[in-house]
Amino acid sequence: MADALLSVVLKQLASAVETGIQRELSLLFGGQNEAENLATTLTAIRSVLNDAEKKQVKESSVRVWLEELKSIAYHLEDVLDEWNTRISGPKIDRKLKHFPRTKSVRLISLCFCFNRSVAYRDIGVKMESIKERLSRVAIEKDKFHFALEGKSREESERLETTPLIDVSEVCGRDSVKTSLISMLCDDIEDASCPVVVSVLGMGGMGKTTLAQLAFNDEGVDEHFDYKIWICVSEPFDKTHIAKMIIETVMWSGWSNLQKQLQRSVGGKVLWSDSQKELQRSVEGKEFLWSDLQKELQICVEGKKFFLVLDDVRTDDFRQWEPIKIPLKSGAVGSRILVTTRNERVSKMMEATFILPLGNLSPEDSWTLFGRLAFYGKSREDRDNLEVIGRRIADRCKGLPLAIKTIGSLLRSKETKQAWKSVLDSELWELEEVEKGIFASLFLSYYDLSSPLKRCLTYCAIIPKDYNIEKNALIQQWMAQGFLASSRSVEMEQIGEEYFDNLAMRSFFQDLAVDREDPRVVTCKMHDIVHDFVQFLAKNECFIMNVDGKKKSKWDHLHKETHHLTLLGQMGQFHPAVYRLKNLRTLQVLQENTSTIPRDLFHCMTSLRQLDLSHTNIEELPSEVGRLLHLRKLNLSSLNLVQLPDTVSMLYNLQTLDLYCCRLLERLPSSLRKLINLRHLNIKETDRLSILPQGIGQLYNLRTLCKFIVKGKGEGCSISELKYLNDLRGDLEISGLENVMDIDEASEADLKYKEHLLSLDLVFALGAKEVMEKVIEAFEPPPNLEVLQVYDYGGSSFPNWLTLLTNLKDLKLLSCVNCERLPSLGRLPSLEKLLIGHFNSVKYVGLEFLGLDPVAERKDSTEPFIAFPKLKELTFRFMVEWEKWDLTSSAHADSCASSSSSNVSVTMRNAMPCLQSLSLYDCPKLIAVPQDLILMPPEELAITRCPIVEQQNINNASIDGFN
């Protein structure tokens, strides 16, 4: 984690040198040479951090050294961040001068009216103190004799697994073992050779144990010619793996020959040190890879082998492919069994079967625990310790490694008090922990990149069993500066990749996916993993539960605590909180908190994230503007009427979350100053009826859930959307009746906002002709998947509506002047359609399906399928609708004869995927189309349509009667 922090600091340092002029650099660093010397020192320290982070688990002196280093790095990051903010302020002011501004949107300069030279000198004083501390840390580094970055001593000494296992210690895996053996031994038609089977699960789940059970099964032994077990080293070494396979196969061949000779001569055959000689001949000989590949191919050619690759970590196909190619020469039925913590490995190796390994049941957990913890104890001792023992076993949450570790630990503890101390202790404080319960997690952790380590340990501020919102978590990582910057890849996308990486390594569980979107929305963290990350983040991340019933551990708060979550029922802030000068995250999850003390923000000037969404505050102190470093401000669901104007001074703010602030009436008039703002969540803000001018200058916005158009002279005009082309997700544009200038409507340039997936266009009654021209100018991006149009007053729909080939969900509501429905049947991706409150529609015919009857008669060689993917169709509050006919047109009588057999046959193909048809409040509707009656959908709901309800509709369940 320290490595990632230093990496960020070095980038900021380079930026400061690049952007600062010589006089300013002298004030900050003492000159450019001093800045370069500082960077050199940091780089030298960074080169030993991998070794230091591993040693600090067992060596307290190293831990103290690392704590001081991280403290220095945090302070240095604050100073550099303040420097960049100060020098950027005047530049932003100059840019904003080019835009028109009214008197109401004036704001104090981002320089905050301070004397620049004085401010730089103050920063320079802080820098001198940091340089002195860093110099001492650099000198102390040498006494620890850290290994330089590379393969550390712990990695080279990593214990290799073997196929040997004490079956008596295996519990609860019988059914899984049966499934695995079936995957290994059953014949598979048209399968590639060899078939890859992957056992997937988090560290400590028993993947290796399960593989050992299968490897030693007698049935498996008889099924294959050769069995090979390889504990894959890290990094992935193809040469070593190839040599191990060759050696094992050759030795197995010689061993079989020895047995045959023994049977033939009726006695022993002397075979002195043959395996050692073979090993020396294979391992010691230098091979060209091409020669080794050929040897491997010859070695397994025509043989049915079973290869176990235990603990594979690399997901790079380029490393796996050179081994895979020669193994294809094996006989049909050969298997490769892979154990891994990473789902990407399974996919990379093209596994035919993936067997996720779940937790042990409570009874199996207790059985395994008892075999270890009660070993050698008397019946009386067992009875005396059973109750507390079950509580300890439950805490292991079905993780075999955790159970075995704690069980082994308790084997030597005889008294109930000793067992209770284990139950009550925080496991990460136990000396035995590193080699036991967390060993597998440490292996996964050390395998992560530095930014991923930082992202994972930050999760220590999330309460146990908490439902984690993925996007919110990514925004928190972004606020803390954990996401590596890239000009070509969005920070949010990098965050998605980080999340997916951690999820695939089983650090997250209970992944919930949106029904409409395959991406993960929420997840949880296993308790054991949570304990582990709290162990890693000790002193940095703290969760304080203050319920007033028991003494809280305020004294345990470390002065270097950087991330704090407050839980419980207390409504006041404890004095200890004010002492946390270096706090970067404050999450207040206390509903009883109704006020925020104004002086709180005087103490927490390093805050990057502030979450007050679970409090009951009704006013945000203006002092929030002092939080120079703040990146994320979560005020969702609060009863705020307005925000203080000082929010506009939060130059670094990236996320402002005001979701469900239903009483909010206005935003700060100078919100346009927040040029780093990426996410402005104002969903469900019912009373917010105007946005401040200048929103269009927030070019970094990715989320703007709602855009409100006002008339000239107040609020935002539609043209402010012109340059917000990075908007993504959902966007609602309301007040469109205020757009009277067609040229201005065109300037919104919606078609260039290619990342938008959902768009709501909300009108109010206005001039019909103007509305038709305005909506035509609002051509949305071609990737749009969801469109909703409300209160549109025109009589016809825009031409672009039928060109949205990716549209899946369409709602058209309260379009009271439309006499005909738009032609929607040719939308190839449409799955859901809702039409309601079309008060002028009396007839729905072929045009709705996108058919021209005359053209259909002329060319009917290829039957047209209307609404090819439509699954749900709903009509509601169609008060004048009388007729729905799929065989005729709403045109003049000359088209009435168009219901020829050709067209009729074509219409039998309409809506082939329809699953649900709903009709609500259509009092004049005479009949449902005959084709829909003959082939009714799975769900047919007809409510308050009295004439239709009297029809005899066979094989359909009607709401209200059968």
Mean pLDDT: 81
Helix coverage percent:
25-40%
| CA radius of gyration | 35 Å
Overall morphology = globular
Structural class by SSE content: alpha/beta
Specify the number of helices: 32
Low confidence ranges: 100-114, 150-159, 257-284, 426-436, 892-907, 952-962
Number of strands: 27
Q: Proportion of β residues?
A: 5-15%
Keywords: ATP-binding, Leucine-rich repeat, Nucleotide-binding, Plant defense, Repeat
Domain Disease resistance N-terminal: 6-91
Domain Disease resistance protein winged helix: 461-533
Domain R13L1/DRL21-like LRR repeat region: 718-837
In short:
Helix content is 37%, strand content 13%. The chain is α/β, with parallel strands linked by helices and 962 residues long. α1 packs across α21 (450-458) and α2 crosses α6 (116-141).
Task: Report on this structure.
By secondary structure, the chain is an alpha/beta fold. The chain contains 32 helices and 27 strands. A 9-stranded parallel sheet has the order 17-18-19-20-21-22-24-26-27. Helix 28 links the parallel strand 19 (756-762) and strand 20 (786-790). Helix 3 (32-46) runs parallel beside helix 6 (116-141) and helix 16 packs across helix 17. The longest helix is centred in the N-terminal third of the chain and has 37 residues, at 60-96. The two termini are 66 Å apart.
